[in-house]
């Protein structure tokens, strides 16, 4: 452990006095939805951004030819792919300042006695293990770079607070991401590494269409109800706000929902 903890006020002041020009961000699941909106928000704000996802074509669509975008096709469930992703970003720009762990899937609608082991493992692999692998790669880099430190933002969900019906795998992984977020933030203190979580409800993305939010999402009482949504660009603004916090401050949890959606009073 360094003689002067980089999580200390003195170290935070030193980093603030020597800001990194053109900060570097890594965004997973950047080919669509929230990931695409966040990656574009970072690029528009002057970040250099590594865009990760499984499909090169959609990542290139997100990048839109931006000179500070680096497209890296990678599967977050595969350690070698994750290593290659972070290695490519560091090789090009020398450091990692922000990671937005966004890659995730909802999985099949199923109760605990209905979901197959295969489907369960797939959701856990993407939503939880993938987030852990990317966070681990980020922390390793953030510990060794100079100036030391950085920020990790995990995309949770309001399902980390309250589940939808028939979402056992998704809900379980999002609750687990909350524990992962808190553990990373605690263990990163001495190295100037902070970790926060954004829990989003009903941003207008393809995932919301899949579960019928706009036309009739299943409610806890068995009924179906059209739920309000909000523009995904607003979610991107919130992530950017978290990323822009100075080293001396951190947003632990930010909950952002569509106005009037059934969350606090679900079912």
What report would you give on this structure?
This protein is of the alpha/beta class and 267 residues long. The chain has a single domain, classed as NAD(P)-binding Rossmann-like Domain (Rossmann fold, 3-Layer(aba) Sandwich). Helix content is 41%, strand content 16%. Strand 7 and strand 8 form a beta hairpin. Helix 4 packs parallel to helix 5 (117-144) and helix 5 packs parallel to helix 6. The longest helix has 28 residues, at 117-144.
Oligomer state equals single chain
Which fold name corresponds to the CATH topology?
Rossmann fold
Task: State the CATH superfamily name.
Answer: NAD(P)-binding Rossmann-like Domain
Q: Give the rounded overall mean pLDDT.
A: 90
Structural classification: alpha/beta
The general outline is: globular
Q: What's the SSE blueprint?
A:
Blueprint: H1 9-17, E1 24-27, H2 33-44, E2 48-53, H3 56-63, E3 69-73, H4 79-93, E4 98-101, H5 117-144, E5 150-155, H6 168-187, E6 193-201, H7 206-210, E7 217-218, E8 224-225, H8 232-243, E9 253-257
Give a short synopsis of this structure.
This protein is of the alpha/beta class and 267 residues long. Helices cover 41% and strands 16% of the residues. The protein has a single domain (21-257), classed as 3-Layer(aba) Sandwich (Rossmann fold), CATH 3.40.50.
